[in-house]
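4.2 Preliminary Data

To establish feasibility before requesting continued support, the project team ran the inverse folding procedure on a target of 50 residues. The structure was first converted into the token representation described in Section 3, and no sequence information of any kind was made available to the design step. The complete token record follows.
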């Protein structure tokens, strides 16, 4: 995956598209698997809300 797919540029601000893992903290993105977000480093999984 390209790094450019993880960020959104809004004017002069840079926004992250995917959430950050609450266990691993900054710098570790969670992967988007359609119905859930999952961390590849520690295995933490969070279900998406409707």
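Position-by-position output of the design step:
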């Amino acid at each position: 995956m390209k790094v450019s797919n993880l960020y959104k540029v809004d004017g002069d601000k840079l926004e992250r598209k995917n959430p950050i893992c609450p266990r691993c903290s900054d710098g570790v993105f969670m992967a988007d698997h359609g119905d859930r977000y999952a961390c590849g480093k520690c295995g933490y999984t969070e279900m998406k809300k409707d």
